[in-house]
Amino acid sequence: MSESEKKPLIIPKDWSDAASSVSCSSLQRPVALVCGPKDSGKSTFSRNLVKVLLLQRYKRVAYLDIDVGQPEFTLPGFLSLTVVDRSILDQDWSAPCLMTPERCFFYGDDSSKRDPKAYLQFVYTLFDYYQLNFCKSSENKTALPLVINTPGWVKGIGYHVLVDVLRYVSPSHVVKINIYDYNKNLPAGLFWLDGYHDEIPHLMEIQSAYRVSYKRSAAEKHDRRLMRDARIIAYFKQCIKGKEVDTNKELSYELASLVPYEVPISSLTISHLHCQIPSSELFYSLNASIVGLGISSEVFEDLPLCVGLGIVRGIDTERGILYVITPVAENVVEKVDLLWQGFIQLPTSLLEVKDYRSPYLSPYVLAST
Question: CA–CA separation, 42 vs 34, rounded Å?
Answer without folding.
Answer: 6
